[in-house]
Amino acid sequence: MALNGDVPRIFTKCNRHGVPVYCVALSAAISLIAYLNVSDSSATVFTWLSNISTVSGFISWIIVGFVYIRYRRAIDYHGLNDRVTYRPPLQIFGAYAQSIFFTIIALVNGYEVFFDWNTANFFAAYITLPIFFVLYFGHALWFRNFKLYAPPEQIDCFTGLEEIEKEHQEYIEPVAGNILQKIWFFIV
């Protein structure tokens, strides 16, 4: 990510073995937050960490659904529907449904704070949402890109398409050698 310019350049520094030392140091420093759990307020720390990770997962799924919807619009715009190798039934509906579902879940994740108001619990339940928006708009300000998304005509759907189609044509379905492989191939 640092090589692409998505994070500060300092994270490109590697030692002689190729280990990105500052990335590892930052990850280790963040993991030290878990040691706050040994204090008297361990339940509070656990609640904050649990809510941050849970709502971050919800936000990730919202974005996955949004990206899939944008992908399908680009495919429709470029007229590539007949070249899509696999299209599950109701997939567009599923993307909208999961995006709406996870948005609702992210917003009502801490509903219990409204019944017995506690400011600390409110921030513990909803701190991830402002963090996400600060990071998103901070990124937009830093890179001076205020578009929420690219229009379908600007999305490149052709780079690498021929290689993928060639690989799909050359794919040989694996043959199951035993009952466990048959079950596995049925599941997958």
Automatic annotation (TrEMBL):
<dbReference type="InterPro" id="IPR004841">
    <property type="entry name" value="AA-permease/SLC12A_dom"/>
</dbReference>
<dbReference type="Pfam" id="PF00324">
    <property type="entry name" value="AA_permease"/>
</dbReference>
<feature type="transmembrane region" description="Helical">
    <location>
        <begin position="48"/>
        <end position="69"/>
    </location>
</feature>
<keyword id="KW-0812">Transmembrane</keyword>
<feature type="transmembrane region" description="Helical">
    <location>
        <begin position="19"/>
        <end position="36"/>
    </location>
</feature>
<comment type="similarity">
    <text>Belongs to the amino acid-polyamine-organocation (APC) superfamily. YAT (TC 2.A.3.10) family.</text>
</comment>
<keyword id="KW-0472">Membrane</keyword>
<dbReference type="GO" id="GO:0016020">
    <property type="term" value="C:membrane"/>
</dbReference>
<dbReference type="InterPro" id="IPR050524">
    <property type="entry name" value="APC_YAT"/>
</dbReference>
<dbReference type="GO" id="GO:0015171">
    <property type="term" value="F:amino acid transmembrane transporter activity"/>
</dbReference>
<feature type="transmembrane region" description="Helical">
    <location>
        <begin position="123"/>
        <end position="143"/>
    </location>
</feature>
<feature type="domain" description="Amino acid permease/ SLC12A">
    <location>
        <begin position="1"/>
        <end position="147"/>
    </location>
</feature>
<keyword id="KW-1133">Transmembrane helix</keyword>
<protein>
    <submittedName>
        <fullName>Unnamed protein product</fullName>
    </submittedName>
</protein>
<feature type="transmembrane region" description="Helical">
    <location>
        <begin position="90"/>
        <end position="111"/>
    </location>
</feature>
